[in-house]
Specification:
By secondary structure, the chain is mostly beta strands. The protein folds into three domains: about 1-30; about 40-125, Jelly Rolls (Sandwich); about 145-230, Sandwich (Jelly Rolls), CATH 2.60.120. It has one helix at about 1-25; strands spanning about 40-45, 45-55, 65, 70-75, 75-80, 90-95, 100, 105-110, 115-125, 145-150, 155-165, 170-175, 180-185, 185-190, 200, 205-210, 215-220, 225-230.
């Protein structure tokens, strides 16, 4: 009788402790980056952009995303995502798709195709900044002739933008800080008020940070430049 009671107490305690221990182990997992294959492009108090590759059949460590994050996929591939309980799913990765995911995601990832997944991600840090008021003659946050809203929530606005070669550059008042991630490269001129226009070549997978609260002109000097533009709130 004593042994039976002891066993029942042990099982009850174990049932109580295991979920707690599992939650603790999940919380202790490393962040998604930095890690091999993830190259830091730009970082400040608003966010951090990484260029990330997932070679075929090379699983990442199990990790936990510490921040909300936005992403742009640079190629088409298939990714296997494994949860901490061992369950997995296969999902398609589509070239030029833009997306936003919540913080707290915990998993392991691995490409099952060659070439493997190639993406740029932006961790959105916790700092928030009030939107600047436009007192200029220019429209607010009108970045490109081709500008499609992909996401709008309490943390970011994500735009799919394109600047065609030879088209008239767009001037607007940019009310928020923003990250620009290049999907299709070319020569892009990004000019703030009072500066002389100067074109710079950008390759797919590059990212730049542009501070808000100022008027800015953006236009293509060569090639049609396609990009994900992320306003951070």
């Amino acid at each position: 009788m004593y042994n039976r009671v002891t066993l029942l107490v042990f099982l009850a305690i174990t049932a109580f402790l295991v979920p707690t221990a599992r939650a603790q182990s999940i919380a202790d997992l490393p962040p998604a980056w930095p890690r091999p294959g993830a190259t830091l492009l730009v970082e400040n108090d608003r966010g951090a952009a990484y260029n990330v590759v997932y070679p075929k059949d090379q699983p990442t460590p199990f990790h936990r995303h510490r921040y909300f994050f936005a992403g742009l996929d640079l190629n088409t591939a298939t990714i296997k995502v494994t949860d901490t309980d061992g369950k997995f799913r296969l999902g398609p990765v589509i070239k030029n798709r833009m997306w936003y995911l919540p913080k707290g995601l915990t998993h392991q990832e691995m490409s099952t195709t060659d070439p493997g997944r190639h993406t740029v991600v932006i961790d959105i840090k916790e700092k928030t900044v009030p939107e600047a008021q436009n007192t200029t003659i220019y429209p607010t946050n009108r970045y490109a002739a081709s500008q499609i809203k992909i996401v709008d929530n309490d943390r970011v606005v994500i735009w799919d933008c394109a600047w065609a070669a030879g088209a008239e550059p767009i001037t607007s008042f940019d009310s928020r800080d923003m990250f620009l991630v290049i999907a299709e490269g070319g020569d892009l001129a990004i000019t703030t008020a009072g500066e002389a226009p100067k074109a710079q070549h950008y390759d797919a997978g590059q990212a730049v940070f542009l501070p808000g609260g100022q008027a800015r002109t953006i236009g293509s000097a060569r090639g049609t430049v396609h990009a994900m533009l992320v306003e951070v709130k």
